Amino acid sequence: MSVRAANAVLSVSGIGKTYAQPVLTGIDLTLMRGEVLALTGENGAGKSTLSKIIGGLVAPTTGQMQFQGQDYRPGSRAQAEGLGIRMVMQELNLLPTLSVAENLFLDNLPNSGGWISRKQLRKAAIEAMAQVGLDAIDPDTLVGELGIGHQQMVEIARNLIGDCHVLILDEPTAMLTAREVEMLFEQITRLQARGVSIIYISHRLEELARVAQRIAVLRDGNLVCVEPMANYNSEQLVTLMVGRELGEHIDMGARKIGAPVLTVKGLSRADKVRDVSFEVRAGEIFGISGLIGAGRTELLRLIFGADVADSGTIALGTPAQVVSIRSPVDAVGHGIALITEDRKGEGLLLTQSIGANIALGNMPGISSAGFVDNVGESALAQRQIDAMRIRSSGPAQLVSELSGGNQQKVVIGRWLERDCSVLLFDEPTRGIDVGAKFDIYNLLGELTRQGKALVVVSSDLRELMLICDRIGVLSAGRLIDTFERDSWTQDELLAAAFAGYQKRDAQLFEAAPRDLP
């Protein structure tokens, strides 16, 4: 045993995992006290599987682990947490019908005589929430009423309660605002000072350079690098991750932007979306930027009929014809698709196969008299597996066994089979590695060359600036401005994102009663 392994808080040796095929092979890794170890690699490389093995959610096929010098074989997540090994996963472990406070202390609710002490619960929740910058949220708020970003911060706060020796953060900033990210980084620094060891999983290489001392890179289930973070720049890490070089430019190919295909006028719903109007042309990618809570997802849901608008119209085609969309069924019937940001909760049947998930939106083509043609379903799925480069053992593999990026490709593949003319993408690359992102960017380019009209919501400004022809900025529910390619700057886009809130706050200030001298 090496000196490093002997002094490690956590060590894994020869760890392997096989499902339908090997996903991890012979992983040897150590984690030192108070260290931040970055773990990165493409989707499907084995990052989440390794972290779930450490966190007690998955049993390894081969290998062994030690924690604080003792054999470590967690039989469950609860057992790992009892030892002080916590994991914040991409898939949130929260109950939407319970309050923030109840979710934070669900396993240890303060009580007296068998009755929950609401006063103590609220006080403890406020303290826990303050650590991650959630001071402005009432702890009695139902988790289901929060956006994904705030839910992520609640999940992080939950895992910081009590003794924590090892904290695994799986893509923790994917849905956070810049302020929330800074709060998280401050908390990481405090945790390190307490001696907490952190495994930080992310595809955002600039973040890894800020927080990590060492980096471990997985590729195709193998550990290809464990080195000091300072030894590598972003370009070198990308090459290690994907086995090839990727530039910071995407060539969408020759395409023709035509007449408007989607026209939205005066769309409104309560205070979430306010009088929004825009149009998207054939062959165009129209990006929608804005802060969390600006109304981006709510706008896409209105267009798709998942929510019903209070006012406004949606028109399709050239010339524009107003259509009635009161449900997703109406939207799909008119050739509109929505690739949701919540692939786990809204986009997939995790316990079903790839074939069944892709077939879900294409039943007329593979069924007859109520019976599914299994051969047709498999052929349909294989077509998308090949086209989307979905890493899998084939159409029969369960979606739950795929990485997050490959699950996202399954969702997209389902809609591609329907040949919709308008596609709405909500955070299409959230939690997806660099290589897979460029695969999806190339796919978007191919769709525009087919004359499709694309609307893309993303929290990553650089992503929108890379792929979009125009970018509309939502702020406090309103479309503040629309920028043309080559005429925008990152500063202008950010200023527009804040503008609606500044105007709203100014109006509230003017309307507020004042004490007279």
How would you describe the overall organization of this protein?
A hairpin with a 2-residue loop joins strand 7 and strand 8. The protein starts with a helix and ends in a 6-residue tail after the last helix. The protein is of the alpha/beta class. The chain folds into 4 domains: 7-84 and 165-175 and 193-245, P-loop containing nucleotide triphosphate hydrolases (Rossmann fold, 3-Layer(aba) Sandwich), CATH 3.40.50.300; 91-162, no CATH class; 259-335 and 420-516, P-loop containing nucleotide triphosphate hydrolases (Rossmann fold, 3-Layer(aba) Sandwich), CATH 3.40.50.300; 344-419, no CATH class. The chain contains 19 helices and 24 strands. A 6-stranded mixed beta sheet has the order 6-9-10-3-11-12, sandwiched between helices. It has a 6-stranded mixed beta sheet with strand order 18-21-22-15-23-24, sandwiched between helices. Strands 2-1-4-5 form a 4-stranded antiparallel beta sheet, with helices on one face. It comes from Pseudomonas laurylsulfativorans.
